[in-house]
Design a protein that fits this description.
The structure is a single chain. This protein is an alpha/beta fold. The protein has 2 domains: about 100 residues, Urease, subunit C, domain 1, CATH 2.30.40.10; about 300 residues, Metal-dependent hydrolases (TIM Barrel, Alpha-Beta Barrel), CATH 3.20.20.140. The protein has 12 helices and 17 strands. The strands form 3 sheets. Strands 1, 2, 3, 4, 5, 15, 16 and 17 form an 8-stranded mixed beta sheet that branches. The protein has a 6-stranded parallel beta sheet with strand order 9-10-11-12-13-14, with helices on both faces. Strands 6-7-8 form a 3-stranded parallel beta sheet. Helix 8 links the parallel strand 12 and strand 13. Helix 5 runs parallel beside helix 6 and helix 9 runs antiparallel to helix 10. The longest helix is centred in the C-terminal third of the chain and has 24 residues. The radius of gyration is 21 Å and the shape is globular.
Amino acid sequence: MSGLRNGILFTGGDVLLDESEELVRADVLVREGRIVAVGGDARAQAGPDVEERRIDGAALLPGFIDCHSHVMVDGLDALELMNEPFSFPFYRAIDTMRRTLDAGITTIRDAGGADLGLKQAQERGLVEGPALQIAIQILGQTGGHTDGTLRNGNVNHLLVAHPGRPGPVVDGPDEMRLRVRELLRAGADVIKICTTGGVASENDDPRHSQFDAEELDVCVRTAAANGVPVMAHAQGRDGILAALRAGVRSIEHGIYADDECFALMKEKGAWLVPTLLAPVALARSVAEGTRVSEAVRRKADEVQETHARMMRRAVGAGVRIAFGTDAGVFAHGMNLEELALMAAAGMPPREVLRAATAESAALLGLDDRGRIAPGLRADLVVVNGDALDLRDYAARIVAVVQGGRVVRGA
């Protein structure tokens, strides 16, 4: 048994230690990977066998949950990706998983790339990193966001098909049904579809819709029959509305969402995962030398202000917002820069932290994490300084606890 003493707690959710405040000084008691007691109960139950770790004045938060990451990719340098050996991304994922955990992110939803082998390797302790939910592949239409076929006819899909990862391009309801079933067979926890074009793809426009209503309906119904939700890469207004009408659980990016989109999100109980960092960090990496096409560079520059404005309206509309970064489009380990961008777009810091913990856990259906409360999994982050100052967050992390085990820091 171990205990964390005298920390400033952000509980992350419903169980508060004080009727009016979420940030209070208290202790946490952990046994066999679970939180046993919090506050006065932790002090009362602590016995001589407790290994105490004092964190006087540091902030103690639930482990962060990134609902949109790609651990098999680490930046979009087109020339590098085109020439890397098939097996290289699997070895690279060992490093990207480690860097993600270093940033205090103890769980991720991999939105395309990681397969069941990587998930099982993490679960069995062969690879250190966040716990994984996996989409395995990203589904798009011919000529759409996932179609890497070049104008000269050569094929350069970002996520190459292999026995554990079916291909990314589907057309028509029959192909959609088959591909979703193949992904479910391969172990997908969530199905990822693209209902619009995207910023990082060469030949489409993020405002244009992709897939028709029948294709989307088949996707959602086939997944739902197996108890699996659907997440939608959706940036343009019409594609967002089409995805919501089909019944997706979350809208990823949402760059051109408007009030009608927000109203339908609330009606359907869907989440927005804004990934504000994606175009910002992509534009920064291009300026630092990452080689992308002129079309991708231009789109990354163009959407940033629109994206931030959308986020401000979404916050004002009361949409449910979860934390996601699109790490992989840029280098892993920068994920927590998203926190400050969410705050800059009008989300109060407490709500930003809630989005990155309790709300993200709710989106992923993980009722055993995202909060600091008895009985939950002991995924915890210790942060120096003011927990509500969201600047330079990763640099202030002094310890990360995953499943009750200190995996970073003293």
